[in-house]
Amino acid sequence: MLEKLMEMKESAKEKISEAKTIQELNETKSLYLGKKSPLQALFSQMKDLTNEGKKELGQKINEFKTMVEEEVNKRLEKIKEEEVERRLKMEAIDVTLPGKEIPVGALHVLTKTIEEMEDIFLSMGYSVVEGPEVEEDKFNFEMMNLPKNHPARDMQDSFYINPNILLRTHTSPVQARTMLKAKGEPIKVICPGKVYRRDDDDATHSHQFMQLEGLVVDKDISMADLKGTLSLLMQKMLGKNTKIRFRPSYFPFTEPSVEVDVTCFKCGGKGCPLCKGSGWIEVLGGGKVHPNVLKMAGYDPNVYTGFAFGIGIERIAMLKHGIDDIRNFYISDPRFLKQF
Ligand code: DAH
Fold it and tell me: Which atom of ligand 1 is nearest to the CA of 170?
């Protein structure tokens, strides 16, 4: 019997050390200590022994039990450790792996151009105002000194929604809206925004484009103020050696009116293919606010004068960055957009 117990000791040790999971370990434990274990058979044979023999066997059985329990506990610790290690390995993060690339967007080149111009005007004390893109004929034309059937309306082919409402053809109606709101007080604003014209799109024309309108109304405002303001703007936008010149022109809302050119930034004014040999590039229109425009908006033209201008924002961005086709701004091609 003692031999039998010795054998069981050996095989129990081996089995316990082989258990891989807690469940397997529990099964092994009950195999040796449970109700159906060979230990029970030993107990039942005990009655045939002498007192001495009983004592000895009982002791050995107790030793065996203690041994099994100790081994099981040791193994249990080991299994738990192995489990922790296994999970650590499985859940480990390889910090040397390259990260997932998250594409980062950026401001559109037109937005950047507008913000740059806004900063320049803000530093000169201007405010930025906006007006609606769906505009009344009254503001888009009539209050800008273009009554119904005025021939100059043909210069701005329009998208009408009904006979009195259209997509604004320029940002000039914001002038009229601002003057009505200011109720005779001095004004110094710029108005950037989208405008629409019925036009066939090509490299320099788009049915939708952007303008930046400027309006200053106060006492003693002159053409010299307009020239100084635009000079500074163009030097900041296109380089400090940029010069501007005024050419006489016609707009219904200004008198006198001018077309404004800048020295060609490519050849510096010598003449090259970009400026078609003239050394100058046309960039905007402006002039002194027409007395009729002032009057219609409640300003006395004998007391107040003002200047106004309208700049094509794409045109400035094209000159600044050497972009040769206005349609690039609107087709959302990342190969174009990523350059800015
Ligand atoms: N509104 C004009 C256009 O779209 C541009 C313009 C010219 C605006 C002269 C002005 C101005 O304010 O004074 O063609």
Answer: 4
Ligand 1 mutation pick, 157, 212, 213, 251, max ligand atoms within 8 A of CB: 251
Indicate if 40 and 135 belong to the same structural domain. Answer: no
Tell whether 320 is covered by a domain.
yes
Residue pLDDT, tens place only, 101-156: 898 889 999 999 999 999 999 999 999 999 999 999 999 999 999 999 898 888 88
Cis peptide bond prior to 192, omega within 30° of 0: no
The DSSP letter of residue 150 is -
Same domain (yes/no): 114, 83: no
The pLDDT tens digits for 22-35 are: 898 888 888 888 88
| Ligand 1 centroid distance, CA of 147 (Å) | 16
Q: With a threshold of 0.85, does the pTM exceed it?
A: no
Asked if the structure places residue 95 within a domain, the reply is no
Q: Which two tokens stand for residue 317?
A: 């961005």
Query: Is the C-alpha dihedral spanning 149, 155, 156, 157 positive or negative?
Result: positive
Q: 158 CB contacts (<8 Å, ≥6 apart)?
A: 140, 166, 167, 169, 196, 197, 198
CB burial readout 150-185, b (16+ within 10 A) else e: eeebeebebeeeeeeebbbbbbbbbbbbbbeebeee
Ligand 1: which atom is nearest the Cα of residue 171?
A: 1
What 3-state class would DSSP assign to 59? helix
Per the structure block, which two tokens stand in for 170? 């320029």
The CA distance from 189 to 194, in Å, is 17
Residues 62 and 117 in one domain: no
| Residue 264 contacts residue 274 (beta carbons within 8 Å) | yes
